[in-house]
Structures are given as structure tokens and as C-alpha cells.
């Protein structure tokens, strides 16, 4: 199946590969797997706690070219967005940007799930920091 130029570009030159320390309170980590194929994606954000802006994002994906391209693109889109803006990123936007064919749509869903999981992990950490005692009981 032919990959689009944008997929090939992100696949051969992936942006923001790597990891942050998952224990860092300003870091949110999302780790998700695709039931369709078993591919796994880890996506992390690093948030400025004062501004709520995502200052950096990294990913590691064990998967197909479309999954790697989707996560690479996601890290580019995440940088500079607030947590709320990041929540609005849709897998359909990734499909459109990368011109993914129907059988590869789930690869973009994996990226959206990874974004949401990373944001949730970050939010949970902030909540735990504010009201930890009552929550942990
Ligand atoms: Fe083989 Fe995704 S199905 S890498
Ligand atoms: Fe399963 Fe791409 S993530 S084929």
C-alpha cells in the first residue's frame, strides 16, 4: 500500500523521539496499545505548571509507519498548546494531514488515545498534588 509523502517524511525523519522521566510531576505519560495489531505507543508531554502550556513532547512507538508518523506529528502539534487545546486534537485531523488510508485509521486513533492518556496522567498528578489527602483515603 502506498504511503503518503508526509507519512514517509515522519517515518524516515521522526520528530521528538525519546522519553522524559515519568516521575517528573510536570510530565504526563500515555502508554496505549492497538488491539487491531498489537502496536504500542508511548507519548509524553512536559507542561509548564505556571502557564499550563505544553513545552515539550516526546514519543516512542513500536509499530507500523503510520503509527510512527501519527505519533511524530502529534508531538509537533502538542508543543505550544495548552492542555485544553491539546484535548481537542482529533484523530481525524491526523488522518487528513497524513492522508492515511482506511486500514490505517486505527493508527491515528492510537495517537489520539496516547495524547488523551498523557493529558489525563498529567491532570491526575496535579489533582493528587492539590488534594492528595482526601483523595487517597
Ligand atoms: Fe504490523 Fe502495525 S500491524 S506494525
Ligand atoms: Fe496498527 Fe498501524 S498501529 S497498523
UniProtKB/TrEMBL annotation:
Supply the InterPro entries for this chain.
ISCU (IPR011339), NIF_FeS_clus_asmbl_NifU_N (IPR002871)
Task: Give the molecular function GO annotations.
Answer: iron ion binding; iron-sulfur cluster binding
State whether keyword rRNA-binding applies: no
Q: Does the keyword Iron-sulfur apply?
A: yes
Q: Which NCBIfam families match?
A: iscU (TIGR01999)
Q: State what this protein does.
A: A scaffold on which IscS assembles Fe-S clusters. It is likely that Fe-S cluster coordination is flexible as the role of this complex is to build and then hand off Fe-S clusters.
Could you tell me which PANTHER family the record lists for this protein? IRON-SULFUR CLUSTER ASSEMBLY ENZYME NIFU HOMOLOG
Name of the protein? Iron-sulfur cluster assembly scaffold protein IscU
**Taxonomic classification, please?**
Bacteria, Pseudomonadati, Planctomycetota, Planctomycetia, Gemmatales
Amino acid at each position: 500500500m502506498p504511503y503518503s509523502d508526509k507519512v514517509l517524511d515522519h517515518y524516515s525523519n521522526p520528530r521528538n523521539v525519546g522519553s522524559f522521566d515519568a516521575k517528573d510531576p510536570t510530565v504526563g505519560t500515555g502508554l496505549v496499545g492497538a488491539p487491531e495489531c498489537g502496536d504500542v505507543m508511548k507519548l509524553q508531554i512536559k507542561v509548564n505548571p505556571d502557564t499550563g502550556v505544553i513545552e515539550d513532547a516526546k514519543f516512542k512507538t513500536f509499530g507500523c509507519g503510520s503509527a510512527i508518523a501519527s505519533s511524530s506529528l502529534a508531538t509537533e502539534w502538542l508543543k505550544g498548546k495548552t492542555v485544553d487545546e491539546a484535548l481537542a486534537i482529533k484523530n481525524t485531523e491526523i488522518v487528513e494531514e497524513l492522508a492515511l488510508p482506511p486500514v490505517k485509521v486505527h493508527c491515528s486513533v492510537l495517537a489520539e488515545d496516547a495524547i488523551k492518556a498523557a493529558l489525563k496522567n498529567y491532570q491526575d498528578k496535579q489533582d493528587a498534588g492539590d488534594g492528595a489527602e482526601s483523595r487517597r483515603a
